[in-house]
Amino acid sequence: IMTESMSTMSTMDAMLLQESKYIATDYLHQASPQRPTANAPLHAVDVDCRSKMVSWCFQVVDFCKFQRETASIAINYLDRYMTTPASALAHTDRKTFQLFAMTCLYTAVKIHEPEAMDPKLVSTLSRGTYTPQEVEAAEAQILGALEWRMNPPTALSFVRMFLDILPAGFLTSAQQETAYELSKFQTELAVNEYDFLSVRPSVVAYSALVNALESISLDEKLMGRISDGLAESVKINTQADKIFEVQNWLYQAVSTQPGNVVQQPKAAAPSQAKFSRRSSFEVS
């Protein structure tokens, strides 16, 4: 049932192959936490540190009117960098972690936005904690550690692809826009969830889109055809890939996630402002 042109499916296949090269691992060892020892660092980076930097990245891109997807890309850089040997100090020193998190956003903006951030701005946002030279040095270290792999396929890019391959007429333009906004909302929630680190973006996208489509009350038979067709097109095993768990988490998160990390979908709250603009986004 999918409208699978050669070019579209070639792109999809390339994205599916590429995403496996951009998956991070559990660098904070949440799956098997170790008991603290006498020599354990007092200020080791934890999940809360990461969550604060995710929130900061989304705030900055909103204030600067960049694409929110750029913040997702920046966090992908950060997570992958933190799995490399080069990140040893960033694991034990929160200021170093903050420097590299801020620099990941600086780099993502430079690569994926029409306008770049000046390293002086990053220094200003840090209240002078880091110099422009330190930002540029951190960027060089990130690029080297990631071997210049700086174009991760995001969950939102898969959502766009999924909607593109739906046959014409399956969804009205209003339904398609609503499904996109609801899916976008969920993919941003997923960025802030550390436990999703090893979940493939295509799986997050599939789960988010199915949730979104279910929320707009499609005919049950049509809904089944769409979800089965998408799963087949992107080679998702709906049993082995724990789709239900991912869908359920995203569904629950929509109503519980703090509003300072993601914006409400336009279809759900058309009158809500994108974000309360502030004069600065300095990190305390």
Automatic annotation (TrEMBL):
Residues 262-284 are annotated as: Disordered. SMART domains: CYCLIN, Cyclin_C. InterPro entries: Cyclin, Cyclin-like_dom, Cyclin-like_sf, Cyclin_C-dom, Cyclin_N. It comes from the Eukaryota. Pfam families: Cyclin_C (PF02984), Cyclin_N (PF00134). CDD domains: CYCLIN_CCNO-like_rpt2 (cd20537). Residues 263-274 have a biased composition (Low complexity). This is Cyclin-like domain-containing protein.
